[in-house]
Amino acid sequence: MLSDIEIAQAATLQPIYDIARQLGLAPADLHLYGNHMAKLTQATVNHLHQQPIRAKLILMTAISPTPAGEGKTTTTIGLTDALNKAGYHALACLREPSMGPVFGMKGGATGGGYAQLVPMENINLHFTGDFHAITAANNLLAALVDNHIYHGNALQFDTISWRRCMDVNDRALRRITINQPIFYDTGFDITVASEVMAIFCLATDLADLTHRLGRIQVGISSQGTPIYASDLQAEGAMTALLKEAFQPNLVQTLEGSPALVHGGPFANIAHGCNSLVATQTALRLADYVVTEAGFGADLGAEKFMDIKCRQSGLRPDMAVVVATVRALKYHGGVEVADVNTENLSALSVGMANLKKHIDNLRQHFGLPVVVALNHFTADTDAEVALIQSAVASWGSSLHICRHWAAGGAGALTLAHAVATLAQQPATPTLLYDNALSLTEKLRTIAQSLYGAKDVTFGEQAAQQLHALAEASQGLPVCIAKTQYSLSCDTKLRNVPVGHSLHVRELRLSRGAGFVVAVCGDMMTMPGLPKQPASSRISVDANGRISGLS
Predict the structure, then answer these.
(1) Which entry of 173, 208, 279, 482 is 20 to 30 Å from 386 by CA?
(2) Is residue 535 part of a domain?
(3) Residues in the chain, pLDDT under 50
(4) Is residue 527 in a domain?
């Protein structure tokens, strides 16, 4: 059996001009990065955004992730290929991979098997340099803060809240101390959790990008007033660093379907959606746009609705929830080593997790839902039938997908179901009102989506809650918590009850337009596992990479 990278390396890619032609784009609309990657020019994006939206927006989400795997990105790509294969005009809209997971535990993020984005190696490693530009803009602001203080501190900084970032996992940089000319504790976040990344992904155009960057709060003065990036005249230079990166990236799937891949905030510690500018562009280039929100529906889908849709006015037409037999058995108490053995009783228990996510999407967000069962060879007929019967009894439909092995042909049933359901009128809603207090928003999310009994605040968070009472008015909340549980405790599988959401820290992201609530033991700079994925990666004498998955 070929590995993902071997499949990708064996593929014959179409020239990116041909991919663009499918979308009605001309060579002049592209800025090339070789023969198979391009950026859409800013002029083209601006022109497209003046056109009416024509596409149905399909939100891809999933059950709570497990070590057994679910395959949400793979299913996004497989569904896009299947829609095109069935005669619909579809475009995938995805996030760019972070090098943290690429070299850490997860590996690459371009799909798998015969449902992949290509060129796989380039996309996973540096791509068009967008994340480097975001990192540079973030750290330029940090340097400007320290430089201002060094040269006299005219703004009278008393506390500094701005943190540095980098796009690899390095736990040693979580906490650092700066001792000249002002002593203060700070640290590094991974780039995909930075406020600059969030701003990049939520800005509507370059003017909005500049405005949001200027609105970043970097500290508090000795008089107790906020100090902004605009007080340092930083926003112009930061925008200059981000100008090229802000243009969406065009690539292709193994089957030649077009894909816009742009921006990449994590969904556990950030808002988990690709850039708004790419989504808005995609909606004017195709009839169906398949976009992904990271991790389970309690994280990525909630933030897609309550942050991205709230700020943009967009609404998805429906949602697809990805599940696997293996993962549902894990939620039912089976350990990873045994997930390939038939176990109907564990599967029956674990299906509660799938039902919770379906119920959340339908009841709290008003979204029509179908289930994509990402099929594995070890799945038995009895197991599939059990899930299919349960999903039908919940008023939804389940579609068995084999896109990993068969590409778009393996997801045709799902494609037709999605195309049909997306045409039916829906009335999507948001979970909470902007007028609620920060505590009330947190409690609404925790109780409605997570099944928590309440929200608790640590000493630091309690102090910050009081300090942010005025600044947080009207802002949504972005919860940073483990992706592996509906709770903030990684060990609690399936649908835990009786737990509380414990908020450890609150961070104001004025430019992005939300408040981050760091819960449990979540870290905004991940660490590497004992056996990182980087140990499998090598390059031969001809420059051919192996081990990247």
Answers:
(1) 482
(2) no
(3) none
(4) no
Cβ–Cβ < 8 Å for 451, 356: yes
Residue 70 annotated as part of some ligand binding site: yes
Tokens of 148: 């201002």
pLDDT tens digit sequence for 427-446: 999 999 999 999 999 999 99
The predicted pLDDT at position 13 comes to 98
- Assigned domain for 431 exists: no
The one-letter amino acid code at 482 reads T
Q: Is 210 annotated as a binding residue?
A: no
Is residue 501 within 8 Å of residue 456, measured between CB atoms? yes
CATH code: domain of residue 496: 3.10.410.10
Q: Tell me: is residue 480 an annotated ligand-binding position.
A: no
Q: How far apart are CA 385 and CA 34, in angstroms?
A: 47
Which pLDDT score is estimated for 186? 95
Active-site residue 95, yes or no? yes
Helix (H) or strand (E) holding 134: helix 130-150
Distance CA 547, CA 535 (A): 8
- Cα separation values, 348 from 262, 328, 331, 354, 389, Å: 38, 8, 10, 11, 11
Per-residue pLDDT at 323: 98
- 520's CB contacts (< 8 A; 6+ apart) are 481, 482, 488, 489, 490, 502, 504
Question: Are both 229 and 315 inside the same structural domain?
Answer: no
Q: Is residue 526 part of a domain?
A: no
β strands within 63-175, DSSP E:
90-94, 111-112, 115-118, 157-160, 164-166
Residues 298 and 342 in one domain: yes
**Same structural domain, 377 and 254:** yes
Rounded Cα distance between 476 and 474, Å, is 7
Domain count, the chain: 3
CA angle at 239 for the pair 183 and 46, rounded to the nearest 5°:
155
Is 404 catalytic? The answer is yes
- The residue from 103, 131, 246, 295 that is catalytic is 295
> 333 — alpha (psi -120 to 50), left (phi > 0) or beta?
left
pLDDT of residue 182: 84
Identify the active-site residue in 21, 106, 315, 443.
106
Question: Other C-beta atoms within 10 Å of 271: how many?
Answer: 31
Query: Angle 344-359/381-393 helices, nearest 10 degrees?
Result: 30
One domain, residues 276 and 405: yes
* 513 marked as binding residue: no
Active-site position among 131, 157, 188, 404: 404
Q: Which structural domain range is residue 460 located in?
A: 438-519
396 and 514 assigned to the same domain: no
Averaged pLDDT of the chain = 96
Residue 204's SS3 state is: coil
- Catalytic residue at 72? yes
Residues above pLDDT 90, as percent of the chain: 97
Query: Catalytic annotation on 295?
Result: yes
Beta strand residue intervals within 468-513, DSSP E: 477-480, 500-509
Do 444 and 416 have their domain in common?
A: no
Residue 265 assigned as binding residue: no
